[in-house]
């Protein structure tokens, strides 16, 4: 009986680790998407995005980069409920002159995002690997709080590089909170993230502290 109890405790702890801390990332992408489908109705309440903060620290930097690219094509990978789109539209103050594509695998998250964002965004349901777009079809790729939930983060980065044009820009987060080291094989230490981006074929420019659990990295696809 003590062995059975100990085994039960171990199973409960492992389940709690995977579901609560890792959010199911080691159980495969379909399980992760299922979890987000289940939690979609509570997602905005959990995240509590501050519209002013989002506009200032996400939308305005992106709008500044896009200011000289009036015909730019922008891809948001793992768009969720449209965080990037909403911040960009708020910073722009109206319909943007560029094309924004929001890619999201969870149909419930996508539905909420489409409703919250409204007009001006093209929504596509699909995976990060493979991205359902041709080579070099975007000028800017954004991916926030998503990389650690993909089966192979390096392969995911390679796909983002593939769909970027030469010289195209990547804006991506790296999880660095207390739980990050427990997401085995899915995260890297903050001082190693630039090396991971370089390994995926990017030229990192800045890796900046951004939020309590994430750093924010800017990089670009080389011209050659």
Question: In words, what does this structure look like?
Answer:
This protein is an alpha/beta fold. The protein contains seven helices and seven strands. Strands 3-2-1-4-5-7-6 form a seven-stranded mixed sheet. Helix 4 (83-92) links the parallel strand 1 (73-77) and strand 2 (99-103). Helix 2 (29-47) packs parallel to helix 5 (107-117) and helix 3 (51-66) crosses helix 4. The longest helix has 20 residues, at 2-21.
Keywords for this structure?
alpha/beta; 7-stranded mixed sheet; 7 helices; single chain; Rossmann fold; 224 residues; globular
Summary?
With 224 residues, the chain is an alpha/beta fold. Helices cover 42% and strands 21% of the residues. The mean pLDDT is 92.
